[in-house]
Amino acid sequence: MQLPLKDIIVLEFSQYLAGPCAGLRLADLGARVIKIERPETGEAGRKLSIKNMWVDDSSLLFHTINRNKESFAVDLNREEDLQWLRKLIRNAHIIIHNFRPGVMERKGLNYEEVKRINPSIIYTEISGYSENGPWKNKPGQDLLLQSLSGLTYTTGNKNDPPTPFGLAMGDYLCGNQAAQFIIAALIKAKKTGKGSLLQLSLMESLIDFQFEFLTTYFQSRKLPMRSEISNGNPLLSAPYGIYKTADGYLAIAMMPLSELNEILQLGALQDYREDEAFVKRDEIKAIIARRLLDHPNQYWLDKAAVLDLWIMPVLNWKEMEASQGYQILEMEQRVILNKGKSFLTTRCPIRINKKVLKSDKPAPEVGSGNETIKLFLG
Predict the structure, then answer these.
(1) What confidence tens digit (pLDDT) does each residue in 21-58 have?
(2) HSE-up of residue 357 (Cα within 13 Å, Cβ side)
(3) Secondary structure of residue 224 in the 3-state scheme
(4) What Rg value do the Cα atoms of the chain yield, rounded?
(5) Residue 117 in contact with residue 87, Cβ under 8 Å?
(6) What ranges do the domains of the chain cover?
(7) Strand, coil or helix: what is 308?
(8) Residue 167: how many other CB atoms lie within 10 Å
(9) What is the DSSP letter of 365?
(10) Is the model's pLDDT at 216 over the cut of 90?
(11) C-alpha distances in angstroms, 1 versus 5, 33, 99, 235, 335?
């Protein structure tokens, strides 16, 4: 299958997560993604481990987010290397970097300089907090950005401390948004021959992620209030949330209280009108929570299935992996390393013409593409 971005060349001046995440998604779609790295040590993300897990000399995290790419090692202080890099820029379609403001300018690789070499280039800058303002030189680390953006007050219950998402949300959101807008800019370049400067930041992506919360706040000037029990979304009424049962947990989504009460059979719940489901959210949830403890998950799921209510079990990863619903998605792929080694990871979540997109090509060794790329440049 010929992938949509075949023959598109991406130069990834990126490290850690946000920039490499954008490059990964473009590589999944068929682009030739070339990491521009310093000789010998490569980009800093090679030494950022998760759970102290390593693959050869680089971290498992690096391999996970840099699979299916090439590496071109250059010393930006050597004129000979810069000449090769300018040739590569001349042949490229896209540049992605996620360095702090000013780094690419100091190297003579800012948008205006690169545009002189290649006027149709799509130049993508990813920063932590944008290029302006008092935070611009602060570390663009995901937990710090979640904290500054208010996102930590949407998870957990009312009396819990601020609670971050257990994922690098800003990095993944911003990286995927970058890929989305790069593809739009590619369409523009195809039509007009003109390039684009795209500027994104993790902070803006996290603010955009909270558009429902912030739009509500802008109108009311009131901070969202997490429910005391089974908070699922501070803006939603009872019964929305996760509840403990006799042997596990259930997620209960939006539904009229009267419909839920058809399976709960609670006289106390009948006393509440539907328009009280938000203002009396906590006391309603407390009643529901006590009742659900009376029986195991499957008892409630069987009753909910008869009425087609929006209720699902809460699974851990082992339980999800064992489920037929997960297995039918074919979300796993094996990446092949040197010396017969391999590791299992997730695939690109997109299907094209009903076919899943998989690639077993591993992350590159530092500079492993230098010879091939120089031959390509001539």
Answers:
(1) 999 999 999 999 999 999 999 998 888 877 677 777 78
(2) 19
(3) coil
(4) 25
(5) no
(6) 9-209+330-377, 249-313
(7) coil
(8) 11
(9) P
(10) yes
(11) 12, 18, 35, 44, 19
Helix, strand, or coil (residue 115):
helix
> pLDDT tens digits, residue range 137-185?
899 999 999 999 999 999 999 999 999 999 999 999 999 999 999 999 9
* 276: its two tokens: 């009280």
- Between CA 224 and CA 214 the distance in angstroms is 9
> Architecture of domain 9-209+330-377 in CATH?
3-Layer(aba) Sandwich (3.40)
Global pTM value:
0.92
Residue count of the chain, please give it: 378
- For residue 64, which of 13, 28, 10 has the smallest C-alpha distance? 28
Tokens of residue 70, six digits: 């090439």
Task: Encode burial over 306-316: b for 16+ CB neighbours within 10 A, e otherwise.
Answer: eeebebebebe
Euclidean distance between CA atoms 278 and 272, whole angstroms: 11
Taking only the tens place, the pLDDT of each residue in 247-303 is 999 999 999 999 999 999 999 999 999 999 999 999 999 999 999 999 999 999 999
Q: In this structure, are strands 241-244 and 249-252 parallel, antiparallel, or unpaired?
A: antiparallel
Q: If you average pLDDT over residues 82-88, what whole number do you get?
A: 95
